[in-house]
Design brief:
Number of helices: 0
Number of strands: 24
CATH superfamily of the largest domain: Immunoglobulins
CATH class of the largest domain: Mainly Beta
CATH topology of the largest domain: Immunoglobulin-like
Number of domains: 2
Shape: globular
Helix content: under 10%
Oligomer: single chain
Strand content: over 45%
Radius of gyration: 22 Å
Amino acid sequence: MMFRNQRKKLKPVILSEPAGANATKGESKDPESAGTTMPIQGISTINLPELSKGQSVLSNKNNVSPRRFTSIAALSICAFLLSRASAPAQTPTPPIDKPSISLSPAVIMAKGDFGQSLTQTLTLTNNTGADLGFDLVAQDIIVKDGKRVFVPAGETPNGIAASAVFSPKSILIKAHTAGSAEVRLTIPAETNVRAVSAIFMGTDKFQTSNAGVAMTASLAALVTFNLTGNVKVQQEPAQVTPASATENMKIAQWLANTGTEPALPEGTAAILNATGTLVGKATFAPQRLLPGERLQFIAEYPEQLAPGGYRVLCSFQFEGKTLTSQADFQVQ
């Protein structure tokens, strides 16, 4: 990946990839950066039904200054059900037990300045028995009424997607091979957009189990941009739902991004008894918050608590900041 100023080219940094859920491993270093490596999470793999010929059902890395950058890619596959050109050299990959398709990296979190450009290579692996064709397109992602909306390139004022340059623009990935494409995105001098979706849009139609119903499959990489220091997250009171005979105790808290930059809060809940003694902890599943987005974060506590009064202390960290809250609850 390369993040550069329009007038000055920067040195690329190649990062390592530790294993995560369904992740691959790899490590390489920038020869002029004293061996600096940064962790990223890897690809996500989706298993698919067995494919028959002619038929398929698919489901579907930056502390940038004007001189240096790093990048973090987090795991996330955006699946779309959306409606073949000659392809570059492709790398054969060994078949696996179940048909699957995957995209790496799936999320690119970039930090930089207005007017800079980002260049990223995206690799799609086709571990199915069918050749798959894709057109590459970009869409701006904005938030309306607290929810994400995908907008075609050119329809958002001062959008980023309109600047996308893909090479190649279309790609055919044969069965059990991987194919790569490069995308370059340029940030306008002024823009409110902070996220772009780089989409491998499927061009092949496949029959489903429903007679007469065809579908296509597409995968997308999410690219987010932090361009200023205005990262703000507001929290609402935590809520506790005691365990039942069929469900674990749940701790829920709504967070809203009230700043202009994306945030990735990571949270923990500590459970104290009536004497203030720590009796357990639970981790909130991380979620990315785009500007204007509001999401509920949930942590589950699987252990059984004795009857009595308790207090839960919730703590979320993001961009060097910490949010804390508490809530009292009773176990009958």
